[in-house]
Amino acid sequence: MNNQEEINSLREQIDVHKKNLRHLELQKAKFGNLYLPPYLVTNIEDEKNDIQRLIKEIQGLEQGHAEILSQPLPTEMQTVNISGSQNVNIIQSGRDVYHQPTPALPPAPCKATEATTTTKAISISDLPNLLGETEIIFSKDIAKTPKQAKFDNGTESYFGLEINYDYMNPVFPALFQSYINLRVPAIRILLKNSSDAPFTHITLSYNMHNIIDLQRESIRDILNPQDSISKEVVLIAKDPNTLFRDERAVLNLALKIEFKDQYGKEYEWAKVLQPKIASKNSFIWKTADGKDCSELIAAFITPHDPAIKTFLGEARELSPNREVFGYGKDKKGVLLQVKAIYETLKEKGIGYVDALLDFSGDQSIKLPSQILADKFGNCVDLSLLFASICEAISINPIIICIPEHMFFGFEASRDGKEYFLLETTFVGNYSFEEAIKEGREIFNNNRGDLLIIDITKARDAGIFPIML
User: Fold this and answer.
1) What residue segments make up the domains of the chain, in order of their start?
2) Spatial distance between the Cα atoms of 53 and 47, rounded to a whole number of angstroms
3) Per-residue pLDDT tens for 24-54?
């Protein structure tokens, strides 16, 4: 049996163990967390250990027969043409699991492996089968400009003035600055004069205690009978930090509309709205009426997180020439840098945890510092972590969403035409090469069901990292 045949045989054995493990996990789910039979726990651990053993055998064979990166790569490692892909709304609901192929096994959070010392930097010879994986072509027009928010509304009549209003509810503090940059209104008002005489000197005032100082704006000097006028207000907090809270809360947004009748009599309509404010790490995938907000996830890609600077100091030890510098002369250097990131995360014991997620509403997102401290995250967390680290060293990331799953990609060169795709949930249990291959396979299996979020384009549109 030659080297490749032996590797293929080992992969087939891994597939068998994966199937066994899936069956055991289903049995475990039926028992719940109150009681697990000892035999079931033992069998699950045995299957995981067998998978790890076989993976190490494969890695040993691949390292012993590595090809130089400049050589042509196998077809399965070639990059992907994305131009024919269609956008769909991200993730309807369900578990953070895709079904083909099986995701990486989640390490127990309390038993994450500690970092080990590595002295050998990654070299081109460590990337035997990846260079051809970068021919992913797609138009940057795929990424959309998000302008969605969830609104509550009301209608009142006040001395012949019909007042229709709606307001952002809930308020997501992490997205507040992006809404300002995108000019997404937090308040929308439509006024109609339903009387038989004109109204004059119509003004709108609003404030939010300790967050927004009193503002007063003129709406219309004269509003004739049966005429209407609309007004949209983009709220700007005097100190955005006042919006960031660990728990949900209720805000008081005071509105006042003033006007005069034809005789100069003054009228004043007042209303206190009570929008809810989500916790600082909350994100909404779509509104109650189904409007997609997924592109705003770019706000949670935070290259300025202090933990990333520390992490890059460690990753630099594995990178060629002990540097992480972004784009250079060719895509080999880019690939080596991202591999250094991957291997450093792996050494630190970072892994994937399969968590129950509800993509139909809001979700709590873990920031890089939290993931690096906890040593685990779901597919969303890990994809955003990789994207944050890459953006920190000026490698342009993309986020790819399919129903019930998210993964990550990065530009192979500055021209934005070629991309590597990487299955981030593999970081704890599989090699970098396998993660790249898996990213391509997931992409190819879901070409008609993709949403690609170009982070560079999102930044250009005004979706910037949240404040930390």
Assistant:
1) 1-65, 67-144+286-461, 151-280
2) 10
3) 666 665 544 444 556 667 778 888 888 888 8
